Amino acid sequence: MSCERAAKYLNNLKGVISNIKYSPEASEVVDLAKRYVEDTEYYLNSGDCETALVTASYAEGLLDALRMIGKAEFEWKRERRKRVFVGGTFDIVHPGHVELLKEASKLGDVIVVVARDETVKRLKGRGPVVPQEQRRYVVGSLKYVKEAYVGGEDPIETVVKLKPDVIFLGPDQTWDEEELKEELRKRGLEVEVVRMKEKRCIPGGLCSSSLIIKKVLEEFCDGEGY
Ligand SMILES: Cc1cc2nc3c(=O)[nH]c(=O)nc-3n(C[C@H](O)[C@H](O)[C@H](O)COP(=O)(O)O)c2cc1C
Ligand SMILES: Nc1ncnc2c1ncn2[C@@H]1O[C@H](COP(=O)(O)OP(=O)(O)OP(=O)(O)O)[C@@H](O)[C@H]1O
């Protein structure tokens, strides 16, 4: 793990060193930073990854300090966060949905696609209670979600448009991981497909949209008090 980190730091440092702009009075410190970068490479190649991490951090510190006092200009390369696609109905949002989205957010920025009303009718044999735009709005307002859209007619087309790095499937979604990957590969998109292993809930929670609807029908349908 520390070897992986040291290699990443070394790569970033090399990128900065090759593009850095600095004023003449900073040259001594920049040279020192360069020597620490060379040391990092040396320690990494000899398998001493802990020391490589120390020398890399020292070089980073020197360069950051120069930048802070306005004697050098450069940018650290930022790693792009992964785009994690989650598709689903999200009719009546419950803690199981929140757990799913929380788990997905550990892999990157979560992009949700809510199923269109017609899709829900077709797949569940009943329409959703909540209209598609409202489902999109509510899910898109949850803290684990970066963006939310209403789905199109063709799910594969939708995924291709949004270009995720990962598709995160729910525990009971019927999509086959390998088929999904293959369909997308045919359209030129390489994605990782990850599935949440088990459903979750909070203690005493009601973690199914259908069960919530059933409870409302059973307990509130005489209209009393409404
Ligand atoms: C990869 C993927 C892509 C999807 N794309 C769409 C889409 O374009 N349009 C749509 O109506 N629903 C889309 N959905 C939602 C599915 O239709 C949804 O999973 C289906 O309604 C099953 O319901 P559930 O997952 O809520 O149980 C997508 C879901 C996944 C996993
Ligand atoms: N308890 C749960 N824990 C984790 N994920 C869940 C849970 N319940 C649903 N999901 C996931 O949330 C996504 C959206 O599912 P959906 O909106 O159909 O919820 P649902 O409560 O299962 O609905 P229904 O009860 O009508 O089948 C799917 O990926 C599904 O697997």
Structural write-up:
The chain folds into two domains: 2-73, Substrate Binding Domain Of Dnak, Chain:A, Domain 2; 83-220, HUPs (Rossmann fold, 3-Layer(aba) Sandwich). It has nine helices and seven strands, in the order αβααββαβααβαβαβα. It has helices spanning 2-19, 27-45, 49-68, 95-105, 117-124, 132-140, 155-162, 177-186, 209-220, and strands at residues 21-22, 72-73, 83-88, 109-114, 147-150, 166-169, 192-195. Strands 5-4-3-6-7 form a five-stranded parallel sheet, sandwiched between helices. Strands 1-2 form a two-stranded antiparallel sheet. Strand 6 (166-169), helix 8 (177-186) and strand 7 form a beta-alpha-beta unit. The termini are far apart. Bound molecules: flavin mononucleotide (FMN) and adenosine-5'-triphosphate (ATP). Flavin mononucleotide binds at residues 87-89, 113, 115-116, 119-120, 123, 151-152, 155, 158-159, 167, 169-170, 173, 175.
